[in-house]
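Structure ticket #2291
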Amino acid sequence: MLLVTGGAGFIGSHLVQAALARGQAVRVLDDLSSGRPERLPPDAELLVGDITDPVAVKDAMQGVTHVAHLAALRAVPRSVAQPLDTDRVNSHGTLSVLDAAKQAGARRVVVTSSSSIYGAAATLPTPETARPRPASPYAGSKLAGEHYAEVYAGLFGLSTVSLRLFNVYGPGQSPDGPYAQLVPRTLQALRNGERPVVYGNGTQSRDLVYVDDVVGAFLVALDSDVTGTLNVGSGRATTVLDVVKAAGGHETNVQWLPERPGDVPHTCADITAIEQALGWRPTVDLADGLRRTAS
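Resolution: structure written out below.
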């Protein structure tokens, strides 16, 4: 049995579908604060609950052998506005999941981390050996989750690995709300004949990785016994303005807004480690990924 925390969310629901397609039994634990149950196939078992609730997590962990932990309070700007909530869910929630997995005798836990832990990285593409420089409560909370995963591996023998996801995009990602990501909000604006929003000067660059590739990384990580931390990205950086252009927009028709606190100027993953450890590499380039997302 595979447990996917946050499985009714964007990445989680794609992972649930892929796991079911390969014959796994899947249970989802989600508080539905941002997840949507209609994203889930009928074969997935849904338990509505909070990862900071030890009873809910213990119940969800019964009979589970593998865990993909994706539940989190996401978005750097929200963490700046809500640091205590971010810590409670991302740090304490991850600890709660790890402890319940240990108590239930689960064999493997894959923890979702973030490229934000690197902050303004001195080296691009950035390897896992780079010194973390978290610049937001979100980044700090994700780094804490990684440390807890390492503690439970070393102290209790729980098999864990943390995947540092870069900028994931794809179908089903919400374009609404103040914390919407670059790709969905850009596509929605262009579809509606509106001006895409660009924060700062648009020269910031992001490593954009398609959701199906990310799901593939989770599946091979769940099947392996590799420990530590691994980057999951495309290995290529694209500026914000280039994303707007690739989506069909133009820099003369964007809505310029001030840079957001906590945002870093550039991200780009060195994916050598995951290629060597798991044989994983992305297969969907940005042009194809944008077409799939927009269709």
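Closing remark: The longest strand covers residues 108-114.
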